[in-house]
Write a structure and sequence with these properties.
There is one protein chain. The protein has three domains: 3-60, no CATH class; 66-197, no CATH class; 203-341. 43% of the residues lie in helices and 15% in strands. It has helices at residues 3-16, 24-29, 34-42, 63-74, 82-88, 123-126, 138-147, 152-164, 170-178, 186-197, 203-213, 258-273, 283-286, 290-303, 326-330; strands at residues 21-23, 47-50, 53-55, 79-80, 99-104, 115-120, 222-229, 232-240, 245-249, 277-281, 340-341. Strands 7-8-9-10-11 form a five-stranded mixed β-sheet, with helices on both faces. A three-stranded antiparallel β-sheet has the order 1-3-2. Strand 2 and strand 3 form a beta hairpin. The termini are far apart.
Length: 342
């Protein structure tokens, strides 16, 4: 076999383990020359992804190859981070066309289109020992992504969504957080993990706990309570056990597809058959109208025998009104627009 053929086979062998991507240095180490690399490009059998980074195939470059090209561009010790690492770990995230790569905080890497470089202190201990391409451990990737969000609400969403999708646990995130001495939103994320540990799995559930239940004196509902209805098993977002009131929270994740909506309706119908009232709340109710949502749930609880009392969270809070019978208080109220089943 000709030396050029042997070296080309060697380069392709390396590329097969890197989603079809190889660096100039790797190709040279396999026995190729710069002239040989250029010959592959001129013949349109290879294509350049970044300077010195080549895809050993033609056509559209898939996302997996773009990820490998990015980490190879950033050099030794680099690892995939941010939303890219979360996506590689199977987490549902917003579509981000930028590949996030972490390098040691002492390094300087030239910026290039399509790659966002993050300098991280103590990077080596945060990289997963097995995964390929190299990437942050899941918990570190979650916290790293959350810290990069511009607002606290967005950071909370990243952490809560990771737990809701059952990719990690609050305890593992707590342990990982202890290893980050400097992290944006660190204190708030620690408090969030306490809430998530209490059972608030999604971002919307965290906001329901913080903005609806606690400031208005509502009892703390049971989170993600597992119930069986016939042969089916359901998880109820927030259930006030013994009072026959359920709050189902339709957030960004977990209530999206046609199949999800059908499953939600089946779950609500099963709850109705058991004698419970189900109230389905979304972002507009929990984030924009937490007081009205508290009043809605509070009225239902009082009508079903709750012995507590709604607490107004401020001067303009509608909980200042003393609830009477459920139906009387709802007449002429904006609450009529809130969805109720059962």
């Amino acid at each position: 076999m000709h030396l050029t053929t042997v070296s080309l086979v060697g380069a392709h062998t390396v590329a097969r383990g890197q989603a079809g991507v190889v660096t100039r240095a790797q190709a040279i180490s396999a026995g190729m020359t710069d002239a040989g690399i250029w010959a592959q490009r001129d013949a349109r059998r290879w294509q350049r992804v970044h300077p010195g980074i080549y895809a050993c195939f033609t056509g559209t470059i898939p996302w997996a190859s773009e990820v490998w090209a990015a980490v190879l561009w950033c050099g030794e010790g680099a690892a995939i981070g941010g939303e890219t690492a979360l996506r590689l770990s199977g987490m549902q995230t917003s579509t981000d066309h930028v590949v996030h790569v972490c390098v040691d905080h002492r390094r300087r890497v030239s910026t290039i289109e399509g790659i966002r470089v993050h300098r991280v202190v103590g990077l080596r201990k945060r990289v997963h020992p097995v995964h390929s391409p190299p990437r942050l451990r899941l918990e570190d990737a979650v916290l790293h992504t959350a810290s990069g969000r511009s607002t606290l609400d967005q950071a909370i969403g990243v952490v809560a969504d990771a737990v809701q999708q059952r990719l990690t646990t609050p305890e593992r995130l707590r342990r990982s957080l202890a290893g980050w001495s400097r992290l944006r939103h660190r204190r708030e994320l620690r408090l969030l993990l306490d809430d998530v540990a209490a059972g608030a799995y999604s971002y919307l559930e965290v906001r329901f706990l913080r903005d609806v239940e606690r400031p208005h004196g509502l009892p703390t509902g049971s989170r993600q309570r597992r119930v069986r209805a016939g042969r089916s098993i359901w998880f109820r977002d927030v259930e006030y056990v013994g009072l026959d009131v359920i709050a189902e929270l339709d957030g960004r994740l977990g209530h999206e597809t046609f199949g999800d909506r059908a499953q939600d309706m089946d779950r609500d119908n099963a709850a109705t058959r058991s004698g419970a009232e189900t109230y389905r709340l979304g972002y507009s109710q929990v984030l924009a109208g937490p007081c009205d949502a508290a009043l809605l749930i509070g009225e239902a609880l009082l009508a079903n025998g709750w012995g507590g009392q709604l607490t107004p969270c401020g001067a303009d809070c509608p909980a200042h009104r003393q609830p009477g019978r459920f139906g009387e208080l709802r007449q002429g109220s904006d609450l009529d627009r809130l969805p109720r089943t059962g």
